[in-house]
Design a protein that fits this description.
This protein has 65 residues and is mainly α. The protein is built from three helices and no strands. 23% of the residues are buried.
Length: 65
């Protein structure tokens, strides 16, 4: 992200990696930051995937606490 913070797919992949490492709480701000960048770039697929993953994480958080 430091090299190219405008590349939305990096936010998606970082968020997925954080989820895989059981760091879902850390993935939430990554997706939240990446979604507007994807919107600005017209990157529909990464945006939709981040929105979906973020919604899933929020549902899980609501159920657990």
């Amino acid at each position: 992200l430091k090299r190219d913070p405008k590349l939305s797919v990096l936010y998606l992949e970082l968020g997925k990696a954080l989820e895989a490492a059981n760091l879902a709480a850390d993935a939430v701000p990554v997706y939240t930051s990446g979604i507007p960048i994807a919107d600005k770039n017209g990157d529909l697929m990464p945006r939709n995937q981040m929105q979906s993953r973020l919604a899933d994480l929020q549902k899980k958080a609501d159920k657990s606490g």
